[in-house]
Amino acid sequence: MNVRVARAVWALGRGVRCRSSASSFLLPPSGAVDVEELLRDATAAEEGPREASVRRLPGQCSVLLFPGQGSQVVGMGRGLLRYPRVRELYAAAHRVLGYDLLELSLHGPQEALDRTVHCQPAVFVASLAAVEKLHHLQPAVIENCVAAAGFSVGEFAALVFAGAMEFCEGSAVSPEEFLQ
């Protein structure tokens, strides 16, 4: 970070308006912390001695993208039930939600499944159930996953897959509640 940028960042943090010329920036106080040095030290401390990283080819990496609300359909999840842990996911969702999400997903009615309160957990659980199938059939895809993302409620499945959020948190919270 050059001195001009450091001064601008410091000034903005103080609520000071900056003009276009560098000479109008206030100088940081004499005891100000050098942010660049702190970041460099923190990175070095976390990583330790840096080894040469081997860059993986695109064919050796995978990215999981989880769908959002609107992708629900009666019968979803039926083909996933034979894979390990899928029934456990639906049983856990039943405990958290207080109703049988698997029954609703398999048999509907579609109008009930389309309601936000039902479709979001249904898409969330079906997404994680699909990951279980993928893990069973092609474990290398999961092992080589470098990123996960999701659209709308799919963001919660991505967060659970990445280990940033617990399953029970994702199955019980709507996006509106999560963001508050």
Automatic annotation (TrEMBL):
Q: Which Pfam families match?
A: Acyl_transf_1
Gene Ontology molecular function, alphabetical = transferase activity
Tell me which species this is from. Phocoena sinus (Vaquita)
Taxonomic classification: Eukaryota, Metazoa, Chordata, Craniata, Vertebrata
Q: Which Gene3D superfamilies does the protein's record reference?
A: Malonyl-Coenzyme A Acyl Carrier Protein, domain 2 (3.40.366.10)
- List the InterPro entries hit by this protein, alphabetically: Ac_transferase_dom_sf, Acyl_transferase_dom, Acyl_Trfase/lysoPLipase, Mitochondrial_malonyltrans
Q: Which GO terms describe its biological process?
A: monocarboxylic acid metabolic process
Limits of the Malonyl-CoA:ACP transacylase (MAT) domain: 65-169
- Return the SUPFAM superfamilies for the record: FabD/lysophospholipase-like (SSF52151)
Q: What is this protein called?
A: Malonyl-CoA:ACP transacylase (MAT) domain-containing protein
